[in-house]
Amino acid sequence: MNTFLFGIFQIFKKPWIFLITVAMMSVGLIVSFYSFIVYDSYHFPTRQAKKVLNYDLDDIYKINFGMHMLGLHSDDFDKLDKLYGQIEDIQGIDYWGSYFVGGNGRADILYVYPSLTGLCDIRTNDNLALAFDYNNMQSGYGIAYVGADLSKVYPVGSKYLDEETGCEYIISGVLKDGSKWLPDDLYGSSAMNMNQALLLDLNYAIAQPENKVFLANASNYLFIGAESDSVKDSLNALLNKLELDVDGIVRLGSLYSSYEKDAMDQAGENYLLPLILLLSALIVSVITARMSVMASKKDYGIMLSNGFHKANIIGIILTENIIKCCCAFLICVLYWAMQRLNMDEFTKTLYKDMFGFRFALFFVILFLMCEFPVRYILKSKPTDLLSRREL
Amino acid sequence: MIVLKDADKLYKGDGFETKAMDHVNLEINNGEFVAVMGKSGSGKSTLLNVIGCMDRLTGGTYILDDTDVSDLGILKLDKLRKQKISFIFQNYELMDHYTIYENIELPLMANGIGSGQRKTKVQEVMERLSIAELKRKYPKQISGGEQQRTAIARALVSGNDYILADEPTGALDEENSGELMKIFKDIHKDGKTIIMVTHDKDIASYADRIIEIKDGKVS
Ligand SMILES: Nc1ncnc2c1ncn2[C@@H]1O[C@H](COP(=O)(O)OP(=O)(O)OP(=O)(O)O)[C@@H](O)[C@H]1O
Ligand SMILES: [Mg+2]
């Protein structure tokens, strides 16, 4: 007995119930996903950072320099030099350095301290750690790496003159496809895609005194330390001693949470709407699934009195509901695929991130849709399902 | 062969308790044509449903062809029903969204019979009951007599031994009822066991034997 086939029959025999169910479900899903994406964007920086970082967010400190530093006077140079000289002596700090992001019109450029590349999972296309060979520096070139998509434009071995810093680099390798770096603008941007970027040794650039000023642009000074607060205290002490203008030292985790909190506060109660919409999508699916069983109640009774087993009937109901769910989700996916064309990178990534959620939701909806009908069929006697004769 | 021993059927719900079968003892041999008669509410349909494995006894035993049905699990009960029983109802019980052909095909689908064989079998019974030209129509588009013949065709197509009919003529006029009884006689000649519920004496007279039911008791 081909239960699956009969499930499809049932759909074709009562197309209206099917169409209404699928339409209601897909509209509900699309609308609720929309709001979930909006809602989800407030968790975005943390989730993005967690994905690309090799370290726990709370093991990383960021020094926020004050406004004064943006001008970077000559005595500030000295202070920074001293800071970099002494920072290594602090117990518990593994790596330190800074980075900033620029661009040359053709490629994004990540200027980064070599010691900081371990922060994210940045490797060469041979899956090796990046090497910064200082013999090259002596020969007058800095080390640069090129993203996978740009290796034709900037082939390995070629020289690259960076107009921003006036430094010449030698392209020393290709980055692994799909490499990512922390987002530069933390709120509302995705992780930086290194496929279309050049990675330049920042240390080399600021070796020239006139480039020290770039440190002021480098809004991110990151230090990877142990979890303990003593690192923070020692850092504070050092910064005080050097009289550097510092706004504060924050753990990356709490920094991101504060971004998120600000955004949440601005956007108001974002939890409620998506939840209500999703809930209505669920309720609609469940109600229409129940209506559909009730509409087919007599059919099921007739089937049972003509040789079908209860197991067959349950199989028919499952088939119908699986097809309904698949269609609704397919419409949803198609809708988003169409939207994708004008989606920004940020929304795209969010939507992709929600795959697991959608996957789970599919089964939750399917379960809710089948749970009542299956129970109903199991507990009903075939005679109850047949239309009763009114006397 | 159908054997009921001290069979009880009690319907229980909030605030009511109806004894629809009360210590029924009954034997029906293979190939018999039996009419069950009794007043409304006397338990005729209940008896038929129990015999047809659609419902269970609440006491006593029911043996169908050497199988003790009383303690069968749901899967075995479904299977037994599929193998042995065909139903004909007063209100025909046809699937409204399926054509006459598809309705008749139903038991064959349940038995997983291939489409070629299904076609010949359905065609055969439709011709026997002179409804072959209706096959593309839907139940709502044909007359009551034709619908009942469709239901009979569906009952016959599976080749099951027991045909249980609950007031098969209840919704038909005299002429159609007479026609139907001729068909029943014909089926009976094939060796089928027929149990037919009716409260019409004339209809009952077509049967070999009449069983009277009163308040759930067989007299
Ligand atoms: N599902 C049920 N739940 C509760 N009581 C029921 C149920 N089915 C039948 N009964 C009761 O059991 C008794 C016998 O019902 P049954 O349908 O067998 O009578 P019947 O002889 O077929 O009557 P009729 O000639 O009107 O069809 C009646 O009193 C009826 O109310
Ligand atoms: Mg009855």
Summary tags:
heterodimer, A: 391 residues, alpha+beta, 2 domains, nine-stranded mixed beta sheet, two-stranded antiparallel sheet, 54% helix, elongated, B: 219 residues, alpha/beta, Rossmann fold, four-stranded antiparallel beta sheet, 7 helices, 10 strands, binds adenosine-5'-triphosphate, binds magnesium ion
Q: In a few lines, what is going on in this structure?
A:
Chain A is an alpha+beta fold.
Task: Characterize the structure shown.
The complex is a heterodimer of chains A (391) and B (219). Chain A has 391 residues and is α+β, with helices and mostly antiparallel strands. In chain A, 54% of the residues lie in helices and 15% in strands. Chain A has 2 domains: 3-46 and 267-385, no CATH class; 67-244, no CATH class. Chain A has helices at 3-13, 15-40, 44-52, 67-71, 74-87, 134-138, 202-206, 214-217, 229-242, 252-267, 272-295, 297-304, 310-340, 345-353, 355-379, 382-385, and strands spanning 60-65, 93-103, 108-112, 142-146, 159-162, 167-174, 180-181, 192-193, 197-201, 220-225, 246-251. In chain A, the strands form 2 sheets. Chain A has a 9-stranded mixed sheet. In chain A, strands 7-8 form a two-stranded antiparallel ribbon. Chain A starts with a helix and ends in a 6-residue tail after the last helix. By secondary structure, chain B is of the alpha/beta class. Chain B has 7 helices and 10 strands. Chain B has helices at residues 44-51, 74-84, 100-110, 115-128, 144-157, 174-189, 201-204, and strands at residues 2-13, 16-28, 33-38, 59-64, 67-68, 85-89, 162-166, 193-197, 209-214, 217-218. Chain B is globular, with a radius of gyration of 17 Å. The mean pLDDT of chain B is 93. At the A-B interface, α12 and α13 of A face α2, β6 and α3 of B. Adenosine-5'-triphosphate is lined by residues 11, 18, 20, 38, 40-46 of chain B. Residues 11, 18, 20, 38, 40-46 of chain B line the site of adenosine-5'-triphosphate.
